Amino acid sequence: MGHELQDSDERARLAALRSYGVLDRPRPAVLDDLTRLAASMFDTPMAAVSLVDRDRQWFAGSTGLADQQTPLDVSFCKHVVPARAPLIVPDATLDPRFANLPNVTGTPNIRFYAGAPIIDEDGHTLGAMCVVDDRPHRFHDRQIRNLTTFAGQAAVHLSSMRDRMRMADLGDELARAARREEDLVATISHELRTPVASIQGYLEILGDQEELSAYRRLIEPIHRNGERLVHMVDHLLAGTRPAEAPLPPPAGTVGLDTVVRAALNTCRPLIGLRSRPPRVRSDEAVLVRADLTRLAGAIGQVLRNALLFTPPDRPIEIRAGAAPQPYVEIADSGTGIPDAELPYVFDRFYRGRHAREQAVPGVGLGLTIARNVVESHQGTLTLTGTPSGTVACITLPAVT
Fold it and tell me: What pLDDT does 110 receive?
């Protein structure tokens, strides 16, 4: 009887998995974005939203992985599904369950794995949100909690995509428009970003080869410009979103401190160029309803502007708190925004005088995208000039 119940539960789980309509389709850009943010935040080269099918795992979102799917017999994530709990493998070569797997003994040489279960609203474990490295890692309790937050975000994104697909089937015009845009972005991602990401991966492998050390000065700019190309495409897609396909509502509840840390990670290269990093003051207990990837990207865009327009030896302060409502404030001591330009800074493709004179890279969409994202979270984004620089304030509704 117990075996029959297990078979019935697995059939129900597989039926639920297929109802999301993401298997054997181009990867949704929103899930690719989530994995890129996870890889950055947990400092790993690889991350995936891995959906565990009957005899395979399908990567509905991934970064740093060449394959779209792998057989289930080499899967780490398959162990997460029955346990319904995070799995942490600090060094796969020391774990008898994994030490002899071909993806451990050979490419991509997995050493570290951390996965948290993706559990949908009906209680079905669809797979795992995982981060992977070719070096051993230690993983702390706070990181496990953050990875579990990422898994929850993946579950909500999948649910939102299924809801829009069902609404489109019923003939709702907005849902059809959103679905068409998702398909377009996924196709562009598959046709452009995926090949570039593959090129980036191979460049990283070449850069690690000692016998090719003389060519690193050629490899690094290729890699850097590949990243720039991907970011530019993402920027253009996000900044020119059609009005009939509005941004989806926030996805799940997250800690505001987690969002701020994720935003800081998106700006890590610019922060590394400074003699003094931004000072962060953040309350840990503030919860907001948010799409972690999009909100972190919006805050990161505002922070990026502060970093680009503030000399490296001058202070930048980030404050996050709950009173009178959840907020993130970024105060810089940079060149500031001329009063005459403030009414236009959120216009698409607008670039102010300082951006033009200092040849700051960009196409004038960053603040437009940031404001659209914040407003889709029922929040506000304001910029205020001060005698010592600029203060950007993002406010969000409190979780009730």
Answer: 95
